[in-house]
User: Fold this.
Amino acid sequence: MNSSQHERAPVKIYLHAFFVWIMSVLKTGGYPGIVLLMAMESSIFPIPSELVIPPAAYWASQGHLSYFGVVLAGTFGCWLGSAITYGISLKLGRPLVTRFLVSEKKLEVGERWVSDFGREGVFFARLLPVVRHLIAIPAGVAGMNFWTFSWTTVLGSAIWCSVLAWFGPQIITPEMFDSPDAMKAAVKAKTKVIVLLIAVVAAAYGLMRYLTRPKKA
Assistant:
């Protein structure tokens, strides 16, 4: 085993232990566990929603949970984590946010997104990987209206959780509960077309907004 493999080994062990913990929370925590994990997913914690909602939906198909309960708990968790992150970002302000939460560059990108697209930007962000984790930070720093932020977050999160829950029973197998990489890859393979479509719609909307913007005198 070479040095790079030695370096990756502890990381793989950590990631597998983290995956086992997520599955344990889902199995023992039920709906509150889903809320907790999705709240973490919607903040700065690195928990992929692909490893939460699909396996929960699989257990729903086995009679342990309900499909709508999984979607509702996931949506509430997304809103809760986003609302907390929004509030922290609002209170900390830009200097502390760039010091402790995100880089200046990432914050500037997020601020432009919120400034250019407003509530629609938050909605589309909740449907896109990576962006969905961070959108609450620039929204909070910018002081976006909380209720507007909330309902767009809830709407986007409900759609995302519904998509993941729909695919869950179709793609999750018992063997995947021993392999986080296999589970995540299977979910991404099914959802990548949907994510691409959402990205195209968001880009088209942005272009339309740009072309129809009021011209400066």
Notes: The first helix runs from residue 3 to 41. The two ends are 67 Å apart (CA to CA).
